[in-house]
Design goal:
826 residues; mainly beta; Jelly Rolls; Immunoglobulin-like; 60 strands; 50% strand; elongated
Length: 826
C-alpha cells in the first residue's frame, strides 16, 4: 500500500480511551502516540473505505433460533449494532472482509488489530456487555482471538498479532503478511437472558497499527534558527534545521505537491538581508535543512512552512511552523567619542557613551563607580549620585561588539555640596576649657569654614582645613546660658548648621538663709538660685514645719509656703543641683507663735522662807519675760531667756500679803501678752497677846487673845473657862475671853489657844486667874480716863487693883493697839 492511501477521520483522532487488559486483550487510550512513525492499514472506517469486499451477517444462525437477530447500520463514519440473548441463541453481527493476500504488518511495522469503540452499552448492571473476536486467515492458516468487554465509552480494543508479545494471542498463528480473510464477530454475551437487557455497540474503525496503535496527531515542523542576531562577514550562509514531530517523536513527511521529499517550493524564505532570496532545501524523512545565502549585508532572514505543505504516513496534513526570523549583521568595531561631564551628588545624572560600531557595542566598566551611578550595557551612564559620593573617580569604560573593543579612561568628578547637620548642640561649662568639632559629612571640593559671630565670651572657631572646624575655649561667667549661632561650610555651595551652644554654670543658692512664718497665718518664702541649666531644688536634710510645703518651681526657684500649724524653728538643708554640680545651703525656718502664759496666775511665798516660782510662756521664738512694778520685799525677777522667768528670794515680814505684778511675754515681732500675777506672801501664825488673864468673881471683865499671820489665823480654845466666862474668835486674828466670873469661880484655870492658817498651827497656853470677890465698901468705885498713845494708862478712882491685875490690863491694851497698827499697814 502506498503512503497516502490510508485516511484517518477526525473522530478517530479525538477518541479518548483508557488502557485495559481483559483476557489478554489490550485497551489503549485514544490519542497515544506510536513509538515510530506508524503506517497503519484501515480494514474498515465505516465511511466507505474498506481493505476488501465486506460481508455483513446478523446473528444468530440458523434463522430458526428463538433469539431475535442482531442489527447493523452505518452512518456518519460509524457502525451501530444491537443484539440480545432473549432466546436459545445469542444475537450479534459478523463483518467479513475478503482480502487479496494483504500484508497487515505493513512490512513489519504493524503488530496489532486496533478497534475503536465510541460506545459498548448493555442495559442493566452486568460485568460483560459483549463478546468480540477476530478470525484471520493468512498463509492458509486461520487463527482466532476473542475477548469479552463490559460497558465502556471511547475505548480502543487492541488484539496483538504475536504470541511473543502477549501469551494471549491469535491461535493458531496465521501469516499476518499474507492475509486473505478477516472476520470480526460481535455477539451478546449469553442466551436465555430473562433480564430483558440488550447491548448497543458503536464501532468507529477497524485497523492494524504499530504497537500502541493510537493514530498520531498531525506532524508539526520545528525550525531551529541560528543565534539571533548572527554576526558574520559578507558572504555568510545561514542554516535553519527543520524537524517534523508528533507527540515528541520524529515523523516522516512527504511533500504534498510532489509526493517526494520536501523541496525548494515547500519552504517560504524572505527577509531584508541582501541575499536572503537565495536558499536550498536538503534532507528527507523527518529532518530537513534550509540553507539561506550567501548574505552580503545587514538585514533579516525569515523561514516558515505553511500548513499542509507536507503530510505524514496517515495522509494527515502537517501543521504550520510559524515564522522564524534571524537578524544578520556584518560587524564594525567600536571607537569612543566624547567625554562625560561632572555629576553632582543628589542630582539626577545621565550621559550616553558613544563608541559607534556594528552591531551596537555593549558597554561595561571596571573598578568602582560613584555610588548611585551605574553603566547600562547600551552605554547609558546614569543615576543619582548618592549623598557622600563626592570626589574624583578613575572611570574605565569598555565598548565591545563582535568586531572588537574600545576603552575610555579618564577621571570622573562628582561635585557635592557640603552637608552639615541641620541643627547641633554643644555644651561648655563656665571656667572649664572645652571644645566641639563641626564636621561636614560630605562635600567636594573640600569645604571651608568662615568665621562665626556671636559666640559666647571665651569661645572661638578654627577651620581645621580638612572639612571640619573646632569651637573651643574657656567660657566666662557672663557666657552662662544658651546661645544660637549659624556655622557655614562653603565650597561651590553653602551648608549651614544652626548650632545651639549651651554654657553651663554650677548652681548657687542666692536667697536668704532664714525664713519667718507666723503660726496659723499663710505665708510664702522663695528660694532663689543662680546656675545653668536651671538648678533643681530639694530639701536634702531637715523636716519642714507642719503645715508648710516645699515646691520646686522648675525655673531655678522653689517656694516654701503654707499655713504653719505648730510654732518653732526648723533647720533645713536646701540642695540645688544641675548637670554641672550640686550646691547646698542651710535655711532656718522660724514659725512665730504668739506668746501664751502656761504657768499659774498666782504664786505663794512664806515670810522668812526661801521660795521660787517659775513663770512660763509658750511662743516662738521663746518669749522674753519682764515684770512691771516692784516685787514684794525680799523677792527678785529673772528672765531665763527660754520662755521662762524665775521669781525667787526670802520674803521679809513686811511683804506678807497679796501682791499683784504684771508680767509681759514678748516673742519676736509679735505683740506682747500681759499676765497679772498674784504673789501671795504668807506668814506663819504667832501669838502677840500675853499668856495669862485675870478676872475677879462678880466683876465683869474681858481678855483679848491676839495673833499675827497671813492668811489671818483662826483662834480656837481648848480647855474649860471659869464659870461665867465665854470665848469668841473674831476671825481677824483676835479672840475675846469675857464675862463675869461666877461666885465660887475663884481660882486658876489653864486653857490652850490654837492659831491656825494654811501654814502651821502654833498653840499658846493661857492661865486664867479668877480672883475672889473683893471686900470693897460702897460706893462702888469708878474709873475714868483714857489710854495714852504711848500705852501708859492713868488710873484714877477707887483704890487700885492689885498690881497683877494692872499688868494684865496693860498687856491686853498693848496687844490690841499693835494689832490695829498691823491692820493699817496691810
Amino acid at each position: 500500500m502506498q503512503p497516502g492511501t490510508n485516511r484517518r477521520r477526525a473522530t478517530a483522532r479525538a477518541a479518548l480511551t483508557a488502557a485495559l487488559l481483559l483476557t489478554g486483550v489490550g485497551l489503549a487510550p485514544a490519542g497515544m502516540a506510536a513509538a515510530v512513525a506508524p503506517t497503519p492499514i484501515v480494514i474498515d472506517d465505516f465511511s466507505g473505505n474498506t481493505a476488501g469486499a465486506r460481508t455483513v451477517t446478523t446473528l444468530p444462525l440458523p434463522n430458526t433460533s428463538t433469539t431475535s437477530p442482531g442489527t447493523f447500520t452505518e452512518s456518519g463514519g460509524q457502525a451501530t449494532m444491537t443484539m440480545n440473548g432473549n432466546g436459545n441463541g445469542t444475537g450479534g453481527v459478523q463483518l467479513s472482509y475478503a482480502l487479496s493476500h494483504l500484508d497487515l504488518t505493513s512490512n513489519g511495522s504493524n503488530t496489532q488489530f486496533f478497534l475503536a469503540f465510541p460506545q459498548i452499552t448493555r442495559t442493566g448492571n452486568f460485568t460483560t456487555a459483549a463478546n468480540i473476536s477476530i478470525s484471520l486467515t493468512g498463509g492458509g492458516i486461520t487463527g482466532t482471538y476473542g475477548t469479552g468487554v463490559g460497558n465502556v465509552t471511547n475505548f480502543n480494543i487492541v488484539l496483538n498479532f504475536s504470541c511473543a508479545q502477549n501469551p494471549v494471542c491469535f491461535s493458531p498463528q496465521p501469516n499476518f503478511a499474507d492475509v486473505t480473510n478477516v472476520t470480526v464477530t460481535i455477539t451478546y454475551p449469553q442466551n436465555h437472558d430473562s433480564s430483558g437487557s440488550s447491548t448497543t455497540v458503536v464501532l468507529d474503525s477497524i485497523n492494524t497499527t504499530p504497537t500502541g496503535g493510537a493514530i498520531p496527531d498531525p506532524a508539526t515542523p520545528t525550525i531551529t534558527s541560528p543565534a539571533d542576531p548572527t554576526y558574520g562577514p559578507s558572504g555568510t550562509t545561514l542554516a535553519f534545521p527543520v524537524e517534523f514531530t508528533s507527540g515528541g517523536q520524529p515523523v516522516s513527511v512527504w511533500s504534498t505537491a510532489t509526493g517526494n521529499a520536501l523541496g525548494h517550493g515547500d519552504v517560504t524564505v524572505g527577509g531584508t538581508a541582501p541575499g536572503a532570496g537565495t536558499y536550498t532545501v536538503t534532507g528527507s524523512g523527518s529532518s530537513y535543512t534550509v540553507t539561506v545565502g550567501p548574505l552580503t549585508g545587514d538585514g533579516t532572514v525569515s523561514v516558515s512552512l505553511a500548513a499542509g505543505v507536507a503530510h505524514d504516513a496517515w495522509a494527515q496534513p502537517t501543521n504550520a511552523s510559524g515564522t522564524t526570523t534571524v537578524h544578520f549583521v556584518v560587524p564594525v568595531p567600536p571607537a569612543f567619542t566624547g567625554a562625560p561631564p561632572a555629576a553632582t551628588a543628589g542630582v539626577p545624572y545621565s550621559y550616553s557613551f558613544t563608541a559607534g560600531g556594528n552591531p551596537p557595542a555593549t558597554y561595561s566598566s571596571s573598578g568602582s563607580l560613584p555610588s548611585g551611578l551605574s553603566l547600562a550595557s547600551d552605554g547609558t551612564f546614569a543615576g543619582t549620585p548618592a549623598a557622600g559620593s563626592g570626589g574624583s573617580y578613575p572611570l574605565v569604560v569598555t565598548a565591545t561588539n563582535v568586531a572588537g573593543t574600545s576603552t575610555y579612561t579618564a577621571p570622573f568628578e562628582v561635585r557635592e555640596a557640603p552637608v552639615l547637620p541641620a541643627t547641633g548642640h554643644a555644651t561648655f561649662v563656665v571656667g572649664q576649657p572645652g571644645a566641639v568639632t563641626i564636621a561636614t559629612t560630605a562635600g567636594f571640593p573640600l569645604p571651608t569654614f568662615p568665621s562665626v559671630t556671636g559666640l559666647p565670651a571665651g569661645l572661638t572657631l578654627t577651620d581645621n582645613g580638612d572639612g571640619t572646624a573646632t569651637i573651643a575655649g574657656t567660657p566666662t561667667a557672663a557666657a552662662a546660658g544658651v546661645t544660637h549661632v549659624s556655622v557655614d561650610a562653603v565650597n561651590w555651595a553653602v551648608a549651614s548648621e544652626a548650632l545651639t551652644i549651651e554654657v553651663d554654670a554650677a548652681p548657687a543658692i542666692t536667697s536668704a538663709s532664714a525664713a519667718t512664718f507666723t503660726l496659723g497665718t499663710a505665708g510664702t518664702f522663695t528660694v532663689t538660685t543662680s546656675g545653668f541649666p536651671l538648678p533643681a531644688l530639694s530639701v536634702s536634710a531637715g523636716t519642714l514645719p507642719a503645715g508648710l510645703t516645699f515646691v520646686d518651681n522648675g525655673d531655678g526657684t522653689a517656694t516654701l509656703s503654707g499655713t504653719p500649724t505648730a510654732g518653732g524653728q526648723a533647720v533645713l538643708t536646701v540642695q540645688a543641683a544641675n548637670t554641672v554640680a550640686t550646691a547646698s545651703a542651710g535655711l532656718t525656718v522660724q514659725v512665730q507663735q504668739a506668746p501664751t502664759f502656761t504657768s499659774a496666775p498666782s504664786a505663794i511665798f512664806v515670810v522668812g522662807a526661801p521660795g521660787t516660782f517659775t513663770v512660763a510662756a509658750s511662743g516662738a521664738p521663746a518669749p522674753a519675760l519682764t515684770a512691771g512694778g516692784p516685787l514684794p520685799a525680799g523677792l527678785t525677777f529673772v528672765d531665763n531667756g527660754d520662755g521662762t522667768a524665775t521669781i525667787a528670794g526670802t520674803p521679809q515680814a513686811s511683804a506678807a500679803g497679796d501682791h499683784q505684778v504684771v508680767v509681759t511675754a514678748t516673742s519676736g515681732a509679735l505683740p506682747g501678752v500681759d499676765q497679772t500675777l498674784t504673789l501671795k506672801v504668807k506668814q506663819v501664825p504667832a501669838f502677840t497677846s500675853p499668856a495669862s488673864a485675870t478676872f475677879q468673881v462678880g466683876v465683869a471683865g474681858a481678855f483679848t487673845v491676839t495673833a499675827v499671820g497671813v492668811p489671818t489665823p483662826t483662834l480656837a480654845l481648848t480647855g474649860t473657862l471659869p464659870p461665867g466666862l465665854t470665848y469668841v474668835d473674831h476671825g481677824d486674828g483676835t479672840a475675846t475671853i469675857a464675862g463675869t466670873p461666877a461666885a465660887g469661880a475663884a481660882g486658876s484655870y489653864t486653857v490652850s489657844i490654837n492659831a491656825t492658817n494654811d501654814l502651821t498651827d502654833p498653840v499658846q497656853t493661857i492661865v486664867v486667874v479668877v480672883a475672889p470677890a473683893a471686900a470693897v465698901p460702897s460706893p462702888t468705885p469708878t474709873t475714868t480716863g483714857a489710854a495714852p498713845s504711848d500705852g501708859v494708862l492713868a488710873i484714877t478712882g477707887l483704890p487700885a487693883l492689885p498690881l497683877l491685875a494692872l499688868a494684865v490690863v496693860l498687856i491686853v491694851v498693848g496687844a490690841a493697839a499693835a494689832a490695829a497698827a498691823r491692820r493699817r499697814r496691810a
